[in-house]
Amino acid sequence: MVVPSSKLQDLIEEIRGAKTQAQEREVIQKECAHIRASFRDGDPLHRHRQLAKLLYVHMLGYPAHFGQMECLKLIASPRFTDKRVGYLGAMLLLDERQDAHLLITNSIKNDLSQGIQAVQGLALCTLSTVGSAEMCRDLATEVEKLLLQPGPYVRKKAVLTAVHIIRKVPELSNIFLPPCAQLLHERHHGVLLGTITLITELCERSPAALKHFRKVVPQLVQILWTLVTTGYSTEHSISGVSDPFLQVQILRLLRILGRNHEESSETMNDLLAQVATNTDTSRNAGNAVLFETVLTIMDIRSVAGLRVLAVNILGRFLLNSDKNIRYVALTSLLRVVQSDHSAVQRHRPTVVECLREPDASLSRRALELSLALVNSSNVRAMTQELQSFLESCPPDLRSDCASGILLAAERFAPTKRWHIDTILRVLTMAGTHVRDDAVANLTQLIGGAQELHAYSVRRLYSALAEDISQQPLVQVAAWCIGEYGDLLLEGSCEETEPLQVEEEEVLALLEKVLQSHMSLPATRGYALTALMKLSTRLRGDNNRIRQVVSVYGSCLDVELQQRAVEYNALFQKYDYMRAAILEKMPLVERGGTQDEEAKESKEAQHSEAAVIPTEPQTSKLLDLLDLLDGTSGAAQPPPPLEPSSEGTSVHLLDLPCVSPAPASIPNLKVFEREGLQLTLSFVRPPGTPALLLIMVTAINTSEADVTHFVCQAAVPKSFQLQLQAPSGDTVPAQGGLPMTQLLRILNPKKAPLRLKLRLTYNHFGQSVQEIFEVNNLPVETWQ
Amino acid sequence: MIKFFLMVNKQGQTRLSKYYEHVEINKRTLLETEVIKSCLSRSNEQCSFIEFKDFKLIYRQYAALFIVVGVNDTENEMAIYEFIHNFVEVLDEYFSRVVNNV
């Protein structure tokens, strides 16, 4: 029994009548079953109706893939009603990923060449919506033929299909180049709009096309001119402007063509000036055209006067009450500010006004633009404005604003004191939102401004006393109080009000910071170190500080605990070093503040390990080097070196040129000829039993210098020999400065040492070469 | 270039959606909910252009219906704003009182 199928309208009424989602689903499922059955039966008469219902159901979000083959059948049918629904179904249900879509290529081809406008229109529409690359390639020539058909309805659709084809398959653009020039002579705005879009697409994709189309710039100018200057035309007027969409498109194309091209830009100048001045700006349509004009002027190589005109138009937009216009004006000004800085500066007050907008996107734009407009002459006023904005702005803009102010202050600060003030104020207002390196920057800045130490430490102290929740501020304040605590307590500073601060108050404040649960671990670290520094700066006794430090020696935080333990050690065992270690820090390089902190704690660590501080050690090493260079192999090592080698970690001494430990091996004279004497002295460092250091010393007691002196050595295979560079290659005459060379011999197997030496040198005008084995090597050298 | 065109009612249900670039079905619903959320939360005083991921959204409200168009960077926002109005006027002429029936 064939159930008479309901019409689409009935179905819609039924679905609308369903009160709940479940009911709706039930209705739809019943209907889908009907549709499926009907498709199976293959009823040609009502197929289109069934498909229409299926498409409606699909629009509501239910699956409809079983209708795909039906679309194909409908498209192939000769009736128009079938074709119409079939193509619509194809556009909605088929897309590139379905295999079935290629099957409609043939149908489309037939329909395109058929000659009935409506059918051609449908086919073109479908092709431009779902056409895949293969389909486009097959059908491109057909579309091109249709471009020059009489009848604007088909031509319009053909142009748009051409746009789609080019987007999918850019290689086919050559086919569409020739017709474009002719299409520009169109009267029909629809076709004209399509053509402009087509040309825009072509130019964007290929520079060759761009060059080709530069020739049509005069024509485009003409079209736009007629548009602008003709009077009211009922067909195309939107709120007084004649076809604004076409105008905008033409302007955009002119922008693309005129970019970086002097000649085209010149042709356009008059036209752009005309459009800019004559467009009616009372309604949105006019403003849209004006906006596009401004963008075009900015992008092409326009004359300076025109650019100023454009910026002024943008300024006028800013004063407009409509939010949308203000928004686009701010966006464009931001783009322009780099190139036309001075022109935009004139509108600075208006921009600053816009900061107070309640709309978030507007104020964000205004903020960016204001930050870009800050320069050395207006920095004070601008930072004032920006700071008042900071107080009231929404939280997501806070960090941008804070970083912006800090950056601007850094670049244009007129005086150091103003800079410090500004940073201080920003930190107090929006402390949690500043960037991480703001703390480092500020400490470096304060460190560098010697004359402002007293001033800054007072300001920071008062700020800290009021509020300890803003972490960056607390960190900087703690650091400053630690460093310059003595200045704080001194009493008077002419730049701030006299502030009488007691030692106890300072200590109490720092303790409060330490104990507060609002403080980050890093902040606590700063506070603890500051307390320590104050122990040397304050005149009172240090009991309170000692107490705090010992308490934190058992803190759960590892960093704090380590610091506290080290500082404790400083108080107890190394009290004599405390003042030196806790001296005022020197000015650090940019980015060095953190390193200094680390170095400070590392130094404390060294004192913990009970090793002599590095300062005296370096000087002792220099002494050693002098000795080695100087007199010939002294058997006694330099006395100051003794305490250092006495049993403490040798690793601290791994500097180049290891210092020899006291050795008792006698020296050996190995060679003598015509006044040139060669002596070997031996050292066995106690730490490394396999190592033997031989110092070869050459002395010249004759009257002529020995030049080009080269000494080479050879040892048996089980040894490892290393020759270090000699002190020179000339042994001066008459007992002058001897030449020395160090040999390192590793003897892991403790085999008997055998050493062969080869000397080459010039003496008395003769070159001499000597090879000999060193005999009588003392047993201690290798046992 | 216009990326998508949405018509949404005040309850947040999509009445019409047309995508001009391929987007997965499940991503579409996600995209739509986010877009609708940002448009519905705007007050009357705020401007009609929103920046959303890498699109720009231009929306316009007609009684209970929101029309939202997503475009890429090169498009002129005010022209699109005018275009939305043109679209509604055309529908109005053709179907009469289109806004109240959705």
What distinguishing features does this structure have?
heterodimer; A: 783 residues; five-stranded antiparallel beta sheet; 35 helices; 60% helix; B: 102 residues; globular; transport (chain A); membrane (chain A); cytoplasmic vesicle (chain A); Clathrin_app_Ig-like_sf (chain A)
Describe the structure.
- Chain A is an alpha+beta fold and 783 residues long.
- Chain A contains 35 helices and 10 strands.
- Chain A has a 5-stranded antiparallel beta sheet with strand order 3-4-5-8-7, with no helix packed on it.
- Chain A is elongated and about 125 Å long.
- Chain A starts with 7 loop residues before the first helix and ends in a 9-residue tail after the last strand.
- The model of chain A is unreliable at 591-663 (pLDDT under 50).
- Helix content of chain B is 34%, strand content 32%.
- In chain B, a hairpin with a 2-residue loop joins strand 3 and strand 4 (55-62).
- The model of chain B has no long low-confidence stretch (mean pLDDT 83).
- Chain A binds chain B through residues 95-96, 238, 244-245, 248, 252, 284-285, 287-288, 291-292, 295, 323-328, 358-362, and chain B through 22, 45-51, 74, 76-79, 81-83, 85-86.
Topology summary:
The complex is a heterodimer of chains A (783) and B (102).
Chain A lengths: L7 H10 L3 H21 L5 H14 L7 H9 L3 H14 L10 H9 L4 H14 L2 H15 L4 H17 L4 H11 L5 H17 L1 H7 L3 H13 L7 E2 L2 E2 L1 H15 L3 H17 L5 H16 L4 H16 L3 H14 L4 H5 L2 H7 L5 H14 L5 H14 L2 H18 L3 H15 L6 H12 L4 H14 L4 H20 L12 H13 L5 H17 L5 H9 L6 H15 L2 H7 L11 H16 L5 H16 L11 H5 L22 E6 L2 E8 L7 E10 L5 E9 L5 E4 L15 E8 L8 E9 L2 E9 L9
Antiparallel strand pairs in A: 1-2, 3-4, 4-5, 5-8, 6-9, 7-8, 9-10
Chain B lengths: L1 E8 L4 E6 L5 H16 L8 E4 L2 E8 L2 E7 L5 H19 L7
Main location (chain B): membrane
Organism (chain B): Neovison vison
Subcellular location (chain B): Endomembrane system
